Amino acid sequence: MSDVPMYTTAERDRRWALARELMDAEGVEALVVYGEHESSGPAPFAPDVYFTNERPGAIVVFPRDADPISLVWSPMHVEDHIEGRRRGDAGWIEPRDMRVAKHAMGVVDVLKEHGLERAAVGVVGLEPYPPFHFNPIMPHTLWASVLEQLPQVTFKPVWLSLLLRTLCQSEEELAVLKHSADIGEAMAQAMLNATRPGVTEADVYAAGMAEGFRRGAAAPGMLIQSGPGFACWGPPTWSFRPQAPRVIEDGDVIMAEVFCMYGMRESQHQVAIAVGEVDARVEQAAKVARASYDAGIEALRPGNTFGQVVEAMKAPMEAADGWNVHPLIHGLNPYGTVCGFGGGLRRLPEAAEYGLLMEVPTVGSDLPLAPGMTFAFEPNCVIDGHLANLGGTVVVGADGPIELNSLTTHLMRA
């Protein structure tokens, strides 16, 4: 696997220059960038890695006049960094700029060392990060302590500014994403190969995950459901509730969402496998989902807005009197834009038994599309309680969309 794409120092310099341009635009003298803990599963909030190219889970303090400083939570980070240097890895963070100090005092010490006790400082981590974090992710106790110790610093949330500057991927990033998408496609093929009556959901799940791991990707679990017809979405029930994985039967449909990550560039793949002859309503829903996919591809052009793509993808679903259980499309690398979903939940006869039911609204409708932006296409449709879901990863190209996947954009048949 010596031909896998890797980042050069040119990519590091591009990202660090972007950070300094952001500081100029926002009128701040440094950035404090909070990264979620490692092994956090799908949709990690890891802007720290964007600047370090290192193990996730740090707070990065990036003064305008210095290289970024990585505050890590454990000596293990340092040990890994040492071993990487011994093996010749091209690290971005110098040893002097890595500290076991992922806490309030660590942040305070760095800002004081750079004479920023009365400066304006930008912060990443004080704003929502949909669709998984509709509340800010910065720990309250940590941030309250920083505020108490630096009462004369003006802290300014700048996540939205960073998001808008990083949505368009560089050529190096797109090469890494393409590699991830190729692995995700292979994972879907392995799942199809493993599917037949008598195996379990766990067998299909394992086949996909094993293929991703074999090819050197980080696959943080997947969503999977099976049955003759259903209208739900999520991780396998046996992953959170003690029960046996469901046995696949003839006439079932398997729906899954594969999360594949290589080098912190994420691709997503919507697996739909028909096992033998499936219910006509599943077949109809799959046709609607494919029409939604095609409409989204047609609308994914520079100059259009994210909201226009959402409306185009909703049109076939609404014309069929269907509804979507999860987003039809959302942004990737990083997350930010997301199509609304869940509005049809009230159609289920059991819905009246539940408390407050609210749909997730569309976020980022006004964002203009530009070349290099990446999206998870996830067109899905429920027809009379029967869900079909398909799609893959798509890039906004200068002359039209670039589809990184083809296998998962149709209902597959086992």
Give the helices and strands, then pairings.
Elements: H1 9-26, E1 30-34, H2 47-52, E2 59-63, E3 69-72, H3 75-87, E4 98-100, H4 104-113, E5 120-124, H5 140-149, E6 154-157, H6 159-166, H7 171-194, H8 201-214, E7 222-227, E8 253-262, E9 265-274, H9 280-299, H10 306-319, E10 329-332, E11 374-377, E12 380-383, E13 386-389, E14 393-395, E15 402-403, E16 412-413
Parallel strand pairs: 1-5, 3-4, 5-6, 9-16
Antiparallel strand pairs: 1-2, 2-3, 7-8, 8-9, 10-11, 11-14, 12-13, 14-15
Describe the overall structure.
- With 414 residues, this protein is α/β, with parallel strands linked by helices.
- The protein folds into two domains: 9-166, Creatinase/prolidase N-terminal domain (Creatine Amidinohydrolase, Chain A, domain 1, 3-Layer(aba) Sandwich), CATH 3.40.350.10; 171-413, Creatine Amidinohydrolase (Alpha-Beta Complex).
- The chain contains ten helices and 16 strands.
- The strands form four sheets. The protein has a six-stranded mixed sheet, with helices on both faces.
- Helix 3 links the parallel strand 3 (69-72) and strand 4 (98-100).
- Helix 4 runs parallel beside helix 5, helix 7 (171-194) packs antiparallel against helix 8 (201-214) and helix 9 packs antiparallel against helix 10.
- The chain is globular and about 70 Å long.
- The mean pLDDT is 95.
